[in-house]
Specification:
The chain is of the alpha+beta class and 395 residues long. It is built from ten helices and 20 strands.
Length: 395
């Protein structure tokens, strides 16, 4: 907006119509919902921080990575390396280490509250979202051993505790108005401003689209019919089963959305219906997929379904792909925020140091991102690649 007003001031011939066109062009550059999010996981053993992993993401793309082995925030995409130079990443590293140090005492206090001294995990999630109409949102959440612990409301500058133990920490944080103000300002200003910048410069990568490939699969005649969509980007997709154009809610199970190794995604929705029923009523059942404004409808009939047979290897490959994806998805949830316990074989507990202090966390699910490399999808044709996302290996 400052740029627009400057142009208007120095170019007297620029009329309101030209200004409107300029505003519209900028609006188009930012069209769609975008998000800037950070996910961090800290593993503590006997009250010592032994492992830290974090990622920063814009939309569905990992753009930065941090762990306790390197103690550095590292850019993960070529296009973001061109936007931000080396000094910027040094500042991000300092910020990451500072936050970890700031929350180290909190982690110890939480373990004391639960009377725990074994292996435990702490997760932090925070970020902001920008809609195409200019609406913004921001959130900050803290978890313990996979359960919600404390969340922050930037509008009221207040915290919400998820359990009795969290109430004690909440009461302490409520007295620190400076911290609450910091997070409010960050989520409403710095986070959004940086997101706008990234979306403008990374537009080609972030707004790249890949249509889903859809298959109907049934292992045996008594098995559920699986509508499987794969190779799509971006991540957001809606899948439903319909009977006579009416949505089916019973006997329907929807999977999570899982990553593929090429940066695209896969998802499935199953319908428990006997083969005899849909064969007697062809074209009655339909799988409907909505993705990036496009609707794909696949009718359940003998011509479209692939069943298990010795001569049909495709179904076997796809079912294996789905199975692996489900396993990876479970581990994803296990790593981020949906586990009761993180059962891991910890490295020898060591103290991570940054100069004269101990570590930080900033962001995420890097373990889960490593696991995503296990997913390999068998497509009818090669997946149209989405944005190439380098894996965290070697970070």
């Amino acid at each position: 907006m400052l740029l627009i007003l400057t142009v208007f001031k120095h170019k007297n011939k620029l009329n309101m119509q030209s200004l409107a066109l300029l505003l519209f062009a900028i609006h188009l550059a930012l069209t769609g919902r975008h998000s800037n999010e950070y996910f961090g996981t800290v593993v503590c053993k006997n009250k010592n921080i032994s492992e830290v992993t974090a990622v920063g993401m814009v939309d569905d793309e990992v753009i930065m990575y941090f762990n306790s082995n390197t103690l550095k925030v590292v850019p993960r995409t070529d296009w973001i390396k061109k936007i931000e130079v080396g000094e910027y990443w040094n500042r991000r590293t300092e910020h990451a280490l500072a936050i970890l140090k700031a929350y180290e005492n909190t982690l110890h206090n939480i373990m004391d509250l639960f009377n725990n001294s074994d292996i435990h995990t702490f997760q932090m999630m925070y970020g902001c979202e920008l809609e195409d109409d200019g609406t913004t949102r921001g959130y900050w959440k803290f978890g313990y051993d996979g359960d919600d612990f404390i969340s922050f409301d930037k509008n009221t500058l207040s915290y919400t505790a998820a359990n009795h133990q969290a109430d004690i920490i909440k009461d302490k944080w409520d007295t620190d108005r400076a911290k609450a103000k910091y997070w409010q300002q960050y989520l409403e200003n710095a986070c959004i401003e940086w997101l706008r910048k990234i979306v403008r410069y990374g537009k080609d990568s972030l707004e790249k689209k890949s249509a889903p490939e859809v298959s109907l699969l049934q292992k045996y005649s008594l098995s559920p019919v699986i509508c499987h969509a794969t190779c799509f980007y971006p991540k957001n997709i809606t899948m439903t089963w319909k009977k006579n154009h009416e949505d089916l809610n019973e006997d329907v199970e929807v999977s999570l959305t899982f990553p593929n190794v090429d940066g695209t995604f896969q998802k499935s929705i199953s319908l428990s219906v006997k083969s005899e029923e849909w064969k007697k009523n062809p074209d009655v059942y339909r799988c409907v997929i909505q993705h990036v404004g496009t609707e794909i409808v696949v009718t359940l009939n003998e011509n479209n379904i692939k069943s298990n047979s010795a001569s049909d290897n495709f179904i076997v490959k796809c079912l294996v792909s789905i199975t692996v994806a489900v396993i990876v998805g479970c581990l994803l949830a296990f790593t981020v925020f949906a586990v009761k316990k993180r059962l891991i074989a910890c490295k020898k507990s060591r103290e991570v140091k940054s100069q004269n202090s101990t570590v930080y966390v900033k962001g995420s699910v890097s373990d889960a991102l490593l696991l995503s490399q296990l997913v390999r999808v068998s497509c009818k044709k090669k997946c149209v690649p989405g944005p190439n996302r380098p894996s965290p290996s070697g970070a």
